[in-house]
Design brief:
By secondary structure, this protein is α/β, with parallel strands linked by helices. It has helices at about 20-30, 65-85, 95-100, 105-110, 115-130, 135-145, 150-155, 175-190, 205-215, 225-240, 275-285, 305-310, 315-320, 330-340, 350-365, 370-375, 380-395, and strands spanning about 35-45, 45-50, 55-60, 90, 195-200, 220-225, 245-250, 260-265, 290-300, 345-350, 400-410. It is elongated, with a radius of gyration of 23 Å.
Length: about 425
């Protein structure tokens, strides 16, 4: 929960033009139709209670009347931009996101008028130009991952720098413990042994590669196309004295060659784009030995939303992950079946662990805002990043999005011994 700074007492609502005065009650009527919770809306001296009695209770303060127009004409992306610019605040952004996720049909079907739908169409058109070709992937990855390692250091776990869902072995586990546990269970499921050569697609900041080399004794080849991540990982590998055991590449996954006993890719599939999903999984297949196995960690969207979502640009695609896309379980499994020789061995859902991971990131980010500001990030960026973390956390809690571990194996792969791990 956030302590809100309320606006000074006033005998009048915020200054509004005639169109806003016409628009506001219509939007409020749509908010009042929300189920599952209630929004206490404060604007100047006015206070409205919208929605139903329910477990989700949140307060929103309108600080600038243009927020209404931005919601009406920009839809959910407009609402996010309005928050970034300080037009409105809330005491619990995660709960607000959950309310909107719970009422997604109402939001998409009734709240977004013709102008908002046109805005969605135009954003969707722009999204088409973010295709993840080899050149496009480099540009899209750099836009997010090369904004500064020091920023990510303010909220990621300090042991592995894992920018992906952790798995919490018990409720009181720290983020560092949960990140280690996640790596251990993935390597265990994949049955990585000292004699294996492990390929990692998507290095991140080197956490998996270093952990696998140290705990499994295997040889690791890992690749990234992020300049910042490559430089950071190269330094970590040298500090750990693992230059002979880990090979660090700066290559697009499509350029990789050779055969590997095991392959792992943690939350990289979201960066390939739906146009290249088959290409990516075909490449995974081609890089494995005849008895090889692959483990993917993937953020997913509900099957029922996949076709619509792959064509639209939401807040995340607009401001956080250009070119990003979320596969669904069905989309991945259908592609594996149609385009590869791989068998689906297991699919384990860990989405609620991601909600907890994001909460830990958010708390650390908020605790380090002074450092973030010292690094040169302005208030609009801070509000954007806060919105991103809360937006994702709320989505995972409501299961609008999920995360899974997908274990794939060549037909000749031997069964992995049962261990009791997740």
């Amino acid at each position: 929960m956030t302590t809100l700074r309320t606006t000074p007492p006033s005998s009048q609502p915020l200054c509004q033009d005639r169109f806003t005065r016409w628009l506001k009650p219509r939007l409020m009527a749509q908010l009042d139709a929300f189920r599952g919770g209630r929004i206490t809306l404060i604007e100047g001296s006015q206070c409205h209670h919208l929605g139903q009695a329910g477990p989700l209770q949140v307060t929103v303060i309108i600080r600038h009347s243009r927020a209404w127009k931005r919601l009406a004409f920009g839809g959910t992306v407009g609402a996010a931009e309005s928050y970034m610019d300080g037009d409105w605040d809330t005491d619990d952004l995660v709960t607000l996101v959950r309310l909107f996720a719970t009422n997604l049909e109402q939001v998409n079907g009734k709240m977004e008028n013709g102008s908002a739908r046109i805005a969605r169409w135009l954003l969707g058109l722009a999204y088409r130009f973010q295709r993840n070709s080899i050149t496009g992937s480099k540009r899209n990855i750099s836009a997010h991952y090369d904004i500064g390692n020091d920023l990510f250091a303010t909220f990621l776990d300090q042991r592995h720098w894992m920018y992906s869902s952790a798995v919490f072995p018990y409720p009181e586990a720290s983020l560092e413990e949960a990140s280690t546990y996640k790596l251990d269970i993935m390597l265990e499921k994949l049955d990585v042994r000292p004699e294996h050569h492990l390929l990692e697609i998507g290095t991140g900041w080197g956490g998996l590669a270093i952990h696998a080399a140290k705990t499994r004794g295997c040889k690791v080849t890992t690749t990234t196309i992020s300049e910042e991540q490559h430089a950071h990982t190269a330094r970590r590998i040298k500090e750990e004295g693992l230059e002979e055991q880990i090979t660090l590449l700066k290559q697009d996954y499509r350029a990789l060659e050779g055969r590997y006993d095991r392959l792992i890719s943690i939350e990289m599939i979201e960066a390939v784009g739906h146009q290249y999903l088959n290409t990516y999984l075909e490449k995974v297949d081609s890089l494995l030995t005849v008895d090889g196995q692959a483990m993917l960690q993937a953020i997913t969207i509900r099957d029922q939303r996949f076709d619509e979502a792959k064509r639209e640009m939401d807040f995340i695609k607009r401001y956080i992950f250009p070119g990003g896309f979320l596969p669904s379980h069905h989309a991945m499994l259908a592609s594996v079946t149609r385009k590869t020789s791989l068998n689906v061995v297991a699919l384990d859902e860990i989405g609620q662990h991601y909600a907890r991971t994001l909460r830990e990131w958010r708390h650390r980010f908020e605790a380090n805002l002074d450092k973030v500001r010292q690094q040169g990030y302005d208030e609009r960026f801070i509000r954007m990043w806060r919105y991103y973390l809360c937006y994702c956390e709320g989505g995972f809690i409501e299961r609008s999005i999920g995360t899974c571990h997908l274990l794939l194996a060549k037909p000749n792969a031997k069964p992995v011994p049962l261990t009791g791990a997740l």
